[in-house]
Write a structure and sequence with these properties.
One of its GO terms (molecular function) is hydrolase activity, hydrolyzing O-glycosyl compounds. This protein has about 375 residues and is α/β, with parallel strands linked by helices. It contains 14 helices and 13 strands. It has helices at about 10-25, 50-55, 70-90, 105-115, 135-145, 155-165, 180-185, 190-195, 220-230, 250-260, 275-285, 290-295, 330-340, 355-365; strands at about 1-5, 30-35, 60, 100, 120-125, 150, 170-175, 205-210, 235-240, 265-270, 285-290, 305-310, 320-325. The protein has a seven-stranded parallel β-sheet with strand order 3-2-1-4-5-6-7, sandwiched between helices. Strands 10-9-8-11-12-13 form a six-stranded parallel β-sheet, with helices on both faces.
Length: about 375
């Protein structure tokens, strides 16, 4: 069975990884990757190098990242992505038995939308979720409509997908795939992490990942400056992972770089890779920002997360999430509270065991 996987960023690749590793070693599958988006961007870490290092077969490498970060540039990038994928789907419409897409990104939507005239059979991961502070919310629901198989992370999201597509068949509540990584990847010790990234995690550390809110673009500059004003008063070491290729992502990037240039305790990282990022999460004291990894993975590392603003608004959360508005005072008060709380000891609502195995079982039954 020939399986293709669409991957456009470091984020979705890290989520896919447990599934990719098991598909690769299963003789029932011929696994191929279609790599595009920020994977091929040097300014975003050229993360296709990680895919090649991991040894996965790449069928296509498609450059789609816009040079600018304006609304017009993002829109043009979507159109370009659709145009570049049209010949891919024309060539492969009889070859791929199933194509995986994941999440909610605009470039993922554009690639998948181009497949619709060719009746490509699609499987969607992480449908049914809600993020009211990002345009991604609309794309996620469209990806569900385009797909035939649905692998969701909670029962609530399964019900939501059924509402979106109009029927309840072929929807599988398997849990969050990325959490399989906790069993599959041996994380760096603090010493190993320091050797790999030159970051001393013996120091109290805050892991910061803060992306633009793409439905309120005009507020993003104020938001990131409020965040930086709060970070400026923290005593801890601050590790900032850089934003995605979103509207105003480059603007945020410049703000972070300028801030880090003035502070000895602030480090900006373009790409840790899955093992590096999870290791940093493991050794950090807490997380701060508005990333889905704070919502989905952090609880399994017993970390509290200060979720800033509305990017993740509407998403189901575990008990480790503290919601704050993007203002300096509110952020600093939450930081103080989190330090008093220590480690999170509750459950992760997204956890289910052996998610990749569950997905493979469904594929063999429904596609094979």
């Amino acid at each position: 069975m020939k399986i293709a996987v669409l991957t456009s960023s470091r984020a979705d690749y890290g989520i896919y990884l447990p599934l990719l590793l098991k598909l690769q070693i299963d003789p029932a599958f011929d696994l191929r990757l279609i790599v595009f988006g920020t994977h091929l961007s040097h300014s975003h870490g050229h993360t296709i190098d990680l895919i090649e290092k991991d040894g996965f077969a790449i069928d296509y490498r498609i450059e789609t990242v816009p040079d600018a970060d304006s609304e017009e540039a993002i829109s043009a990038s979507m159109a370009l992505t659709g145009m570049k994928f049209a010949p891919v789907w024309a060539a492969e419409k009889e070859n791929y038995d199933l194509v995986f897409c994941l999440g909610d990104r605009y470039e993922m939507f554009a690639a998948v939308a181009a497949s619709v005239p060719f009746n490509i059979k699609l499987a969607h991961i992480h449908g049914g979720e809600t993020t009211l502070g990002a345009i991604d919310n609309k794309f996620r629901h469209c990806l569900s409509l385009f797909s035939e198989l649905h692998f969701v992370s909670t029962a609530t999201f399964a019900n939501r997908v059924a509402e979106i597509i109009g029927y309840a068949e072929h929807i599988y509540n398997v849990g969050a795939l990325s959490l399989d990584n906790l069993n599959d990847i041996e994380l760096y010790t603090k010493d190993e992490f320091k050797k790999q990234f030159n970051i001393d995690m013996e120091q109290p550390t805050v892991l910061v990942t803060f992306h633009p809110e793409t439905v309120s673009v005009d507020r993003n500059l104020n938001h990131v400056r409020a965040l930086i004003a709060a970070l400026n008063e923290l005593d801890e070491q601050v590790v900032i992972t850089m934003p995605n290729a979103d509207t105003m992502g480059n603007t945020m990037r410049k703000e972070y770089e300028a801030f880090a240039a003035t502070k000895s305790n602030v480090i900006c990282i373009e790409n840790f890779g899955t093992k590096g990022y999870f290791s940093c999460m493991q050794h950090a004291n807490y997380l701060l920002g508005n990333t889905s990894s704070g919502i989905i993975e952090a609880a399994s590392f017993n970390k509290y997360v200060i979720n800033v603003g509305d990017r993740q608004k509407g998403r189901a959360v575990s008990g480790n999430i503290l919601e704050v508005i993007p203002e300096k005072k509110a952020i600093l008060e939450a930081c103080k509270k989190v330090k008093e709380l220590g480690n999170y000891k509750g459950k992760n609502i997204y956890f289910s065991s052996n998610v990749a195995d569950q997905i493979i079982k469904v594929i063999k039954e429904k596609v094979g």
